[in-house]
Amino acid sequence: MDREMIVDAVSKRFEDGTTALDGVSLEFARGEFAAIVGPSGCGKTTLLRILAGLEEPTSGHVELAAGGGRRDHMAMVFQEQSIYPWMRVRENVAVGLHGLGLALAAARAKVEEQLDLVGLRAFAGAFPHQLSGGMKQRVSIARAFASERRVLLMDEPFAALDEQTKIGLHGELLRIWEHTRKTVVFITHGIEESVVLADRVYVMTGRPGRIHARVDVPFSRPRDVVALRGDPEFGRLVVHVWGLLREGMAA
Ligand SMILES: Nc1ncnc2c1ncn2[C@@H]1O[C@H](COP(=O)(O)OP(=O)(O)OP(=O)(O)O)[C@@H](O)[C@H]1O
Ligand SMILES: [Mg+2]
């Protein structure tokens, strides 16, 4: 498989002396869905911000196989709400189109298409306060996919949602991803979530974060996110990742 991005020995030490990351090396293949799990405070968000080019590593570097500036190739879905409360749903999605230089009609069509994919067409004219938490995260996802960036960086996008909404969104996210096959880096605390979604799960240690293990997820695509949970192999893999996480925290 073609390479998308290389993370080479990235460390991050903040000015106050906190070392968040210590020698993180990873390689993402084009079109792969990678998940990163790790204990709270181990540097996951810091790593994602470095991948996005929003933060500089203290040492090491990140390289895109395609070359060029990283910011132009990355779309990010944040841990906390990241849609604008004063904009309607369709305007929030259209933010993702900035810089693409689309004509107005093409931009409108693109926004409609994304709203359809996340099932929010009927809410195009609504404001965020009129939406549920799950619907707001769907707006963020629609915006990220609309942007046509090569790489999608997602930082616990579903952490604040109830289990039922979350599982629904797993299905939606995978359906949209199958459609576009962007490279996804998905950060989560949820072991089950990581195994449901990803081709590869990276397990981080406690702070300073290092990569403790890499687990390949063998399930075929497209995946049925509900049926998969009943597969004994799924249960086995979840327990395996839990074990690695515990081991990593002790390391
Ligand atoms: N700008 C900053 N200045 C100083 N320390 C920071 C800064 N940003 C993060 N840190 C510290 O770096 C460490 C890693 O933080 P980070 O947000 O990356 O963790 P995380 O793995 O995303 O945690 P969580 O799972 O709780 O979201 C923490 O100890 C945090 O306090
Ligand atoms: Mg975080």
Question: How does CATH name the architecture of the largest domain?
Answer: 3-Layer(aba) Sandwich
Strand content: 15-25%
Highest-level CATH class of the largest domain:
Alpha Beta
Helical residue percent band = 25-40%
Number of separate domains: 2
* Count of discrete alpha- or pi-helical segments spanning 4 or more residues: 7
Any idea what the shape is? globular
- Multimerization status: single chain
Q: How much is the average pLDDT?
A: 93
Distance between the termini: 32 Å
Please mark out the parts with pLDDT under 50 across 5 or more consecutive residues, or reply none: none
Structural class by SSE content: alpha/beta
Main beta-sheet annotation: 6 strands, mixed
Gyration radius (Cα, Å) is 18 Å
Describe the structure.
This protein is 34% helix and 24% strand. With 251 residues, it is an alpha/beta fold. It folds into two domains: 3-73 and 149-250, P-loop containing nucleotide triphosphate hydrolases (Rossmann fold, 3-Layer(aba) Sandwich); 83-148, no CATH class. The protein starts with a strand and ends with a helix. The model has no long low-confidence stretch (mean pLDDT 93). Magnesium ion binds at residues 44-45, 79, 155.
